[in-house]
Amino acid sequence: MNSVTLVLNAGSSNVKFAAFARSAPIPGRPNTLLAPPERLLHGVLDGVGDKARLQAWDRNGAALSGEQLPPSPDTPQGHAQTFQHLFGWLERQLPGQHLHGVAHRVVHGGEHFTQAMRVTPELLTQLDALSPLAPLHQPHNLAAIRVVAALAPQLPQVVCFDTAFHAKQPWVMQAYALPAHIREAGVRRYGFHGISYEYIASVLPAHLGEQADGRVVVAHLGNGASMCAMRQRQSVATTMGFTALDGLMMGTRCGNLDPGVVLYLIQSLGMTPPEVEALLYRSSGLLGVSGISGDMRVLQDSADPRAAAAIDLFVARIARELGGLAATLGGLDALVFTAGIGEHSAAIRSRVCHDAAWLGVEIDEAANQAVHQTGQTRISTARSRVSAWVIPTNEERVLAEHAQALLLGEEMRT
Ligand code: ADP
């Protein structure tokens, strides 16, 4: 019987999922896969905890029959009903296939968890303690693991952390200028989007050739947005820090902010800490500045000057952070765009590349506009000193690979 790995990326209102065929190990190297696992289908459960709807696509991108699920309450029991439905649906879609494990994205691994781990009750308790550092993501990531554990206690579950890719950055890129006792309590930069950066790092040679090991900045521009400076495909510095609030302006998060603003909000404007948290995570960024939407497509389609102002600020922040990351690397060889905005908005890429002209980026506007028609990933001219690229990310594949390698390794040892 063939085995499949289920990958889950659980957010606040949706759960993205994908099923991957299990890949074989390299003979004699149980933790290393012969080839990347193949994706059999993927989909999204929207409206979890209310009127959930399942949409999915097969390996060729053709839509599989969507389903409206029976209403279920926004409680662990309600979520369990929704997941049970998903499991039943998967069995019908993949007859004769055995589900051998589930891989989850977990945003924060803190100081101690820097590689894929098998889920245990003790691990979940330790990861709960990190929820205040990633309130938009961590509680939902962990809730999904608990629901699956309750539904299928024997099914192995593996977690991968968005912080892990940055764990080996130099100390000066991780430390805040705070006293030792605060730093020793784990208050430092961790960085996020590491699963996406790990994927991009793995495919850089296929696109960039020898430049892949040079000075590369990857811009992951989605609802959450960050940039990562890499050398030899390792993370050297990144824009996010202790939490996923820092750095670039995002859909609803403020990005880089003087910590004095937080003090002012509390001490002078009388806001409570939960109010400040809601402001900085949920009602700032593109949404807060425009007063219209946190969705880049909506802002790009709007004639409202507030939408234009929000986009101006978004681009200006990228330009400024890019300068800082290039300084960290001692120059720049390549700039890579990925995630929703990075992959799909030619207008934003064009503006970022023009702002980066001083670094040596010369955009090929025709190539930039035609990325989706031509499938060509290079968007800079042949003579551009710094090359620019659009490379679609694939976090699910990294999750499947880690889970399969870890579980295969365990099986070989038993
Ligand atoms: P998440 O962080 O939730 O995974 P995504 O990587 O899917 O987010 O990115 C979502 C963002 O990408 C949204 O701001 C959305 O408007 C933007 N986006 C998606 N398609 C386009 C497009 N064609 N043009 C501009 N922005 C787009």
Topology of helices and strands:
Elements: E1 2-10, E2 14-21, E3 25-26, E4 29-33, E5 39-46, E6 53-58, E7 63-68, H1 76-93, E8 97-106, E9 117-118, H2 121-128, H3 138-151, E10 157-161, H4 171-174, H5 180-183, H6 194-208, E11 215-221, E12 225-231, E13 234-238, H7 259-267, H8 273-282, H9 285-290, H10 296-300, H11 305-329, E14 334-338, H12 339-344, H13 346-355, H14 365-369, H15 371-374, E15 387-390, H16 395-413
Parallel strand pairs: 1-8, 8-10, 11-14, 14-15
Antiparallel strand pairs: 1-2, 2-5, 3-4, 5-6, 6-7, 9-10, 11-12, 12-13
Helix pairs in contact: 1-3, 6-16, 11-13
The chain binds adenosine-5'-diphosphate.
Adenosine-5'-diphosphate binds next to α10 and α12.
Descriptive report:
The protein has helices spanning 76-93, 121-128, 138-151, 171-174, 180-183, 194-208, 259-267, 273-282, 285-290, 296-300, 305-329, 339-344, 346-355, 365-369, 371-374, 395-413, and strands at 2-10, 14-21, 25-26, 29-33, 39-46, 53-58, 63-68, 97-106, 117-118, 157-161, 215-221, 225-231, 234-238, 334-338, 387-390. Helix content is 39%, strand content 21%. The model has no long low-confidence stretch (mean pLDDT 94). A hairpin with a 6-residue loop joins β5 and β6. It is α/β, with parallel strands linked by helices. It is built from 16 helices and 15 strands. It has 2 domains: 2-161, Nucleotidyltransferase, domain 5; 210-390, ATPase, nucleotide binding domain (Nucleotidyltransferase, domain 5), CATH 3.30.420. The chain has an 8-stranded mixed sheet with strand order 7-6-5-2-1-8-10-9. A 5-stranded mixed sheet has the order 13-12-11-14-15, with helices on both faces. A two-stranded antiparallel ribbon has the order 3-4. Adenosine-5'-diphosphate is lined by residues 222-224, 251, 295-297, 300, 339-341, 344-345.
